[in-house]
Design goal:
The chain has 163 residues and is α+β, with helices and mostly antiparallel strands. The chain has one domain: 7,8-Dihydro-6-hydroxymethylpterin-pyrophosphokinase HPPK (Alpha-Beta Plaits), CATH 3.30.70.560. 27% of the residues lie in helices and 27% in strands. The strands form two sheets. Strands 1, 2, 3, 4, 5 and 8 form a six-stranded antiparallel β-sheet that branches. A two-stranded antiparallel ribbon has the order 6-7. The protein is globular, with a radius of gyration of 15 Å.
């Protein structure tokens, strides 16, 4: 079995409902959710003139490889109505694969670990809640340590404990 860490998020519609729906679809696709962080609210990153985001980190377990999981996640986004109209634009759902096992993957369709995780507090904070000692396979640094030195200063506010 493979282990992956995902970040789900969105800033359109009923954000809590959209994240819960994404979890259901992930499980229906054969990936068991082992751990999930609380929900975190963050101002929009990259394009700031939009509603704030809710984000949640998930640790999932399943049998398929990284590229097939990525295809699954993109299919879930499409099924949920995600439209990619503008980079960093508003969206009801975004599912990012942050890590896949301890693999390093560089392909035209997939880069693992996520190339910007060390620069995004909104990803590191929920990851730190569920896997603080996970070691980034390229930077060889724990999630806790990456969060402590993250250059992103956007406030990330825990809003709901979902455990």
């Amino acid at each position: 079995m493979n282990i992956s860490f995902l970040l789900i998020g969105g800033n359109e519609g009923d954000r809590k409902v959209e994240l819960a729906k994404a979890c259901v679809y992930i499980e229906q696709a054969g990936w068991r959710i082992l751990r999930r962080s609380s929900l975190y609210e963050t101002a929009a990153w990259g394009k700031e003139d939009q509603a704030s985001f809710l984000n949640q980190a998930l640790e999932v377990e399943g049998a398929t490889d990284g590229p097939r999981l990525m295809d699954t996640l993109l299919g879930i986004e499409e099924k949920m109505g995600r439209r990619r109209l503008e980079k960093y634009g508003s969206r009801n759902i975004d599912i990012d694969m942050l890590f896949f096992n301890e693999e390093v993957i560089h392909s035209p369709r997939l880069t693992i670990p996520h190339p910007e995780i060390q620069n995004r507090r909104f990803a590191l904070a929920p990851m730190e809640e569920i896997a603080p000692d996970y070691i980034h396979p390229v930077l060889r640094t724990s999630i806790r340590e990456l969060l402590a030195v993250c250059p992103d200063k956007l406030e990330v506010k825990k809003i709901i404990n979902t455990r």
